[in-house]
Design brief:
2 copies of one chain form a homodimer.
Chain A lengths: L1 E5 L3 E8 L7 E3 L2 E7 L1 H12 L3 E8 H13 L7 E3 L4 E8 L4 E6 L7 H14 L5 E5 L10 H11 L4 E4 L2 H7 L6 E2 L3 H8 L4 H10 L4 E5 L5 E5 L2 E6 L11 H15 L3 H16 L9 H8 L3 E4 L4
Parallel strand pairs in A: 1-5, 1-9, 2-7, 5-6, 9-10, 10-11, 11-12
Antiparallel strand pairs in A: 2-4, 7-8, 12-13, 13-14, 14-15
Chain lengths: 307, 307
């Protein structure tokens, strides 16, 4: 089983409107609700791949209940821990006339010290059944900034390799706990290290403790710096669509690779293909299965010295 | 007890943002949730006035549960009927930089024939304890367009006077059931009758069945055309603030007047004072009690022949 952790889960609400009237009233044509958060997206992709997965994290209130209902609907096993405060929502307003989406991001629910300890205990209980663990996304208020470092140490104690996908302070504070793999994107590399050269940023993150860094460069594919070598993996062509969740699809493939101990070149090819196939699917956490099969053999993976 | 009916109740959510970024992501600084809908606002005002009131209407799903929780928090007695579909939300995004609010209005939940019959039965059971009934707002999908006519006839059968506050087709379809009082605003008069002269529009609505028409003209106060005479009531000065809910505050005072059989001049003075005092309060359904006391004796009420 691959365990995914989403500490700052959200109920993602999508409103379709004919045109968004700023400063006035807009009728919503349709409402869709979905359990959201990067770790949950990773589990959705794993589940579709036929890989056994469990979702954990923190949810609360009636929004948390909606979130759980949606996971049950998707047949995704969950071991979420309930907190006192209401889970957050994100509201995406898709404006049909402008062809653009405006996102409203609620602040995360405040987590108490007791709730954080309860989560840590639950997570520790799940680790012995996990072949890999994925720690994704931002930290909600109240959770210690070195939360991921604690979770990484617990995973290491059970011999479970971990993928960490976060940015900024939570990423920097986690590195001393030596994650097996981190997956920043180009913006996160700059934001976290302050360095504009991606390779220098990657090396800084490795020097601080990350064993492997796989950086996602959008339509340019992935760059991997590992103890076994450096690779660059590119999709054969650009895929049009919704890039939200493309990084989560890549993380799903990377976690499977870590769990199976597969060679980097094949893992990276799958990660790039899955990421591109997810861009072709309308929702984060889903992918175009036919496109994935086709792209898998077309991804060019080769060593590199310079970017 | 004054019974208020809100068939298309909503959970009103308010997001405060520093600036709304259309087509991009905006962090929400604070989230407030409140049971909303015109009838519910009327009950809030009645409750604050110390008048016994009960809220009824249709709610469903987890949003309906939040709505009920908020009424319980406000100590407002409710006899809401549960439907299968999820209650709607409205999202008001207050942009601090622009000083303006953008409203997103979800469509109402679909009501089945069985649910409508269950509501009608519940309503009929509540009428014998009511001194007046207030029917407010739009109709959700699935409810017959002449819904208010049926509810008015049931009220009349129990000798309970009714205030109807709606517009368009639901208002026109209700008039043959002869409501004791309707309270259109200036825009609703035009939208419902197609007439631009407010007095001609009022007379048309009375000819179609409304016994009394009290039209709200915003900061200009109220105009009442009743079987007992015609009055105009004006506040002594303009009140700055949030006009949402001002009409509901006026309806609360009018319903109290109908229930008590008070003379029109005093009822209209209170309605204008309460309406103006509600503009001074930040939320619909609340009012500035000190301002209300002060304005009550300052409202000018007099007969009129022309507007």
């Amino acid at each position: 089983m691959i365990l995914t952790v989403t500490l700052n889960a959200a109920l993602d609400v999508t409103y379709r409107v004919a045109r968004l009237h700023q400063g006035a009233s807009t009728r919503v044509l349709s409402v869709a609700e979905r359990a959201g958060g990067k770790g949950i997206n990773v589990s959705r992709v794993l589940h579709t791949l036929g890989v056994d997965t469990t979702v954990t994290g923190l949810v609360g209130g009636l929004t948390g209940r909606s979130l759980r209902q949606d996971l049950a609907l998707a047949a995704l096993p969950e071991a979420l821990v309930t907190i006192g405060q209401e889970s957050r929502r994100t509201v995406a307003v898709f404006d049909e006339a402008a062809g653009e989406t405006s996102m409203l991001l609620e602040p995360g629910a405040q987590v108490t010290g007791d709730e954080w300890r309860a989560f840590t205990a639950r997570y520790a209980g799940l680790l012995p059944s996990a072949k890999a663990v994925v720690l994704s996304g931002s930290l909600p208020p109240g959770v210690p900034v070195d939360a991921y470092a604690s979770l990484l140490r617990l995973a290491r104690g059970c011999g479970v390799p971990a993928v960490l996908d976060t940015e900024g302070e939570p990423l920097l504070a986690a590195l001393p706990a030596r994650p097996a793999l981190i997956k920043p994107n180009a913006d996160e590399l700059v934001a976290t290290t302050g360095l504009t050269d991606p390779l220098a940023a990657i090396e800084q993150l490795r020097a601080r403790g990350a064993r492997t860094v796989v950086a996602s460069l959008g339509a340019e594919g992935l760059v991997a710096v590992t103890p076994e070598g450096r690779w660059r993996a590119r999709p054969p062509h650009r895929v049009a669509g919704n890039p939200t969740g493309a990084g989560d699809a890549a993380v799903a493939a990377l976690a499977v690779g870590l769990a199976n101990g597969a060679p980097w070149q094949s893992v990276l090819a799958r990660a790039v293909a899955l990421s591109a196939a997810s861009v072709a699917a309308p929702l984060a956490g889903s992918y175009d299965a036919v496109l994935y099969q086709r792209l898998r053999d077309q991804v060019a993976v080769g060593p590199f010295t310079q970017l």
